[in-house]
Amino acid sequence: MTFPPAPAPDAPKTEWRTWARAARAALPDRSEALTAHLRDLLHAQGARRVLAYRALPGEPDVSGLEHDFTLLAPRARFRPSPRLTLHPWHTATEPSRFGALQPPADAPEEALATVDAVLLPALAYDRRGVRLGYGGGFYDRLLPDFGGLVIGAVWSALVVPELPSEPHDCRAGWLATEDRAERVRD
Predict the structure, then answer these.
(1) Cis? peptide before 80, omega within 30° of 0
(2) How many Cβ atoms sit within 10 Å of the Cβ of residue 129?
(3) 119 touches 49 (CB < 8 A)
(4) Are strands 159-160 and 124-126 parallel, antiparallel or unpaired?
(5) Residue 91 vs residues 74, 76, 101, 110: alpha-carbon distances, Å
(6) How far does the chain reach from its first CA to its final CA, in angstroms?
């Protein structure tokens, strides 16, 4: 598959996001293969409770993990400050402003401390685990004190040598693609 050339590592994140969206739109959905690698990794690491995500169009769909693990779904909240709250997976029935299903505002909340692993959706990752998100900073605010597994879920064509990063950006310790799941390089 041929994509436009990736921007320079020091290009603005907006330029990277434009590139990643265009590249992702051309990719086939291989969620089943990616989910199989995630399943193996999560079992090998002893994870039981997993913060997952309801996929946006073009993102890997990780809902196939539902029968193997206790999944939680995030809800983006904007007041009094932007943050994610965690809820039982089955409560994610309401479309969010971003287009993914999310739990309703009154769904029971779960604590991050009860989670073994977090699956991070992204537009792209680099080989060091730097995430190119959507620009809201929700996961960057959620994860600084999280001690469990942080796994980036992304198509292999969107893993690049280097992305721009800022000091507050949380990194994934593992990347799962349709080809494999592996620990990132520092």
Answers:
(1) yes
(2) 23
(3) no
(4) parallel
(5) 10, 14, 9, 12
(6) 28
Report d(CA 97, CA 55) in Å as an integer. Answer: 13
- 54 DSSP 8-state letter: P
- The letter for the amino acid at 88 is P
Q: Could you read off the pLDDT of 55-87 as tens digits, one per residue? A: 999 999 999 999 999 999 999 998 888 899 999
Which sequence spans correspond to the domains of the chain? Answer: 13-183
DSSP E strand boundaries for 1-123 = 49-51, 70-77, 83-88, 94-95, 101-102, 117-121
Fold of domain 13-183: Rossmann fold (3.40.50)
**pLDDT tens-place string over residues 123-171:** 999 999 999 998 888 999 999 989 999 999 999 999 999 999 988 888 9
HSE (side-chain half, CA atoms, 13 Å) at 154: 29
